[in-house]
Amino acid sequence: MKKLTGIIAAGLIGMISYAQPPADRKIIGQLCGCFEVSFKYAETFSPSADYKFHDREEIGATADLALPIEVSDKKLGRQRLLIVSPTVIVKHWREEWTYENPVIWKYKGDRTWVKETLPADQVKGKWTQTIWEVADEPRYQGLSQFVNLDGKIIWQNTTDAPLPRREYTVRSDYNILKRTNRLNIGPGGYLHEQDNQKIVRSNGTEKLIVEEKGHNNYKKIEEKECDAARKYWEENKEYWSKVRKVWEDHIKTNDVISLKEKIDNKLLHEYLLTLAKDYKEKKVSKDEIDGRIRAEIDRFIVPAEKKLAGTR
Q1: For labelling alongside 73, which of 17, 42, 210, 233 has CA 20 to 30 A away?
Q2: Phi-psi region for residue 150, left (φ > 0), alpha (ψ -120 to 50) or beta?
């Protein structure tokens, strides 16, 4: 892997250097568009002979639209929308790419993220990938360079994250997903390959429960296949920009963010999606909506000191 991270990306996109972040941004731009997606996960190894492996998971033939919502030479934000049917669109996670970004929110477990500032030499020439949840709350961040390996553009990073949504409602035998995310990018789409470790972290110790392999394939398809998702976003993008603004305020003014998982057995995104529907149907006015969004998010934010005490 040391050899891999030392290779400077060239070839398909052209020579990439620290002084030319727009060249990398063109690569990131290939992650936007209309895709046919499939998700596959399989647990592969456990250090415990008594561990019972969970069944493989496979979801396929779903359309996915990744829309650019913020674009500059040193930043690209994209919103993911899953198309279940022409009438059922699911707002999925949001992703940001930022160049030489020194601020990293590290996941500490127990739904707590802590802000850290990295020295300039650790971020030089690197892009940070930030994943935000369905409700635009924090999820995970990682940084690395784009490299060219055997004609493939690759970006790879290992970082701690909460349990994935496919698991946090059905199991609680681990509390940290140490994710190695590897993007293999080509002209016809990309592969999001994962080598994950499911870990129990407590009182300064870690125990590996099981390792997992993930293959998420994104194959570009005709743009018209995602027309329903574009229509959904046009009708709802104003509301979600307001949600992002509330989170931006929290990110700028706090060094620790800790969140409740549920209130009255409902997740934050369930409340915000209901509010989005009410706003669209004009049950909530323009004068009220900003305050209503902030009130819902603030209900889930808990005093950082209490959370950090349980993660040290």
Answers
A1: 233
A2: left
Q: 36 forms bridges with which residues in the sheet?
A: 63, 219
Which pair of tokens denotes residue 180?
């190695």
**Amino acid identity of 102?**
P
Contacts of 215 (CB under 8 A, 6+ apart): 38, 39, 40, 41, 191, 192, 193, 194
Whether the Cβ atoms of residue 68 and residue 28 lie closer than 8 Å to each other: no
- What the chain holds in terms of domains, given with CATH numbers, is 2-223 (2.40.128)
Q: Which pLDDT value is given to residue 61? A: 65
Judged on CB neighbours under 10 Å (0-12, 13-18, 19+), 102 is middle
Q: What is the pLDDT of residue 149?
A: 87
d(CA 38, CA 61): 6
The C-alpha atoms of residue 176 and residue 211 are separated, in whole angstroms, by 12
Tokens read off for 248? 């931006």
The HSE-up count of residue 119 (CA atoms within 13 Å, CB side) is 2
10-residue averages of pLDDT along the chain (312 residues): 38 38 85 96 98 92 91 92 92 95 95 96 96 96 93 94 91 96 94 98 95 97 96 97 97 96 96 97 97 98 64 46
pTM given for the model: 0.88
Rounded-to-integer distance, Cα 114 and Cα 108, Å: 7
